[in-house]
């Protein structure tokens, strides 16, 4: 009798211990799962910013296949595809994302962005029309401005550009786009003003510097602007200014600017040399 009671107690103890061990294992598994989510989130952030775009695509493709219901991984895949220069594939993923129950307005705006990158401006406009007008973000208005620009709806474009500028602390890119819009409309003074504003926010934005030169050249102003630039940038901008002068019919000035560009560049400036040689050959043959 004593033996059976003891056996029962031992059995109960073993079962209890086993239950405790199983409970502990479950707690450990849950803790590890939480830890993995944290680590995975950090890795996703790295992949979306400093990681190689193609590696990021591979990572998010693999992770999305393993976790097909996780919208954050699909978003990561779509963004990585854009970074990797595959907007056509990004559009397919973004279309899948916007059908997800947890999709939001930002997802649809990102779809519109991918559509623009893929050359589907009408599709992008249709997607933005589905976003409530009360949803106001920098990216939304930047895209709206670009679409209005393409439709030559200048008043709407200017209004959207202005709103976008006010919604970001780093407006250099949108100011450059706005300036280029003014450049294409022939409003060179306003384009010049906007390019200078863009450079004020980002002194390394060479595109805005080059566009500034085009705006000044179109007005017959061949003086270099007082902006921060490297020696190589100065040579490249002189080259742009020279070509602008030649296009305006100011060939002698253009020739002088080409020579200055060649002398300024710290290495051999093939493009400027070639342009100068073509100009001199044309003059001698004429």
TrEMBL record:
<dbReference type="InterPro" id="IPR011990">
    <property type="entry name" value="TPR-like_helical_dom_sf"/>
</dbReference>
<dbReference type="Pfam" id="PF07721">
    <property type="entry name" value="TPR_4"/>
</dbReference>
<protein>
    <submittedName>
        <fullName>Tetratricopeptide repeat protein</fullName>
    </submittedName>
</protein>
<dbReference type="InterPro" id="IPR011717">
    <property type="entry name" value="TPR-4"/>
</dbReference>
<dbReference type="Pfam" id="PF14559">
    <property type="entry name" value="TPR_19"/>
</dbReference>
């Amino acid at each position: 009798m004593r033996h059976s009671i003891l056996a029962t107690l031992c059995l109960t103890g073993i079962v209890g211990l086993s239950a405790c061990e199983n409970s502990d294992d479950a707690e450990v598994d849950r803790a590890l799962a939480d830890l993995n989510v944290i680590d995975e989130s950090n890795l996703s952030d790295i992949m979306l910013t400093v990681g190689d775009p193609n590696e990021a695509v591979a990572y998010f493709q693999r992770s999305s296949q393993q976790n097909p219901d996780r919208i954050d991984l699909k978003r990561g895949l779509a963004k990585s595809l854009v970074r990797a220069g595959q907007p056509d594939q990004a559009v397919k993923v973004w279309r899948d994302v916007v059908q997800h129950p947890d999709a939001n307005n930002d997802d649809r705006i990102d779809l519109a962005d991918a559509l623009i990158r893929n050359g589907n401006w009408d599709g992008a406009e249709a997607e933005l029309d589905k976003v409530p007008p009360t949803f106001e973000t920098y990216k939304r208005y930047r895209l709206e401005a670009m679409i209005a620009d393409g439709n030559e709806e200048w008043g709407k474009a200017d209004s959207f550009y202005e709103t976008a500028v006010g919604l970001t602390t780093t407006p250099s890119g949108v100011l450059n786009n706005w300036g280029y819009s003014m450049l294409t409309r022939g409003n060179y003074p306003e384009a010049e003003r906007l390019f200078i504003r863009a450079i004020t926010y980002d002194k390394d934005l060479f595109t805005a510097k080059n566009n500034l030169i085009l705006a000044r050249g179109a007005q017959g102003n061949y003086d270099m602007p007082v902006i921060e630039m490297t020696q190589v940038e100065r040579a490249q901008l002189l080259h742009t200014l020279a070509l602008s002068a030649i296009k305006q019919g100011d060939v002698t000035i253009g020739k002088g600017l080409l020579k200055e560009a060649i002398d300024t560049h710290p290495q051999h400036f093939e493009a400027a040399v070639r342009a100068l040689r073509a100009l001199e050959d044309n003059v001698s043959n004429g």
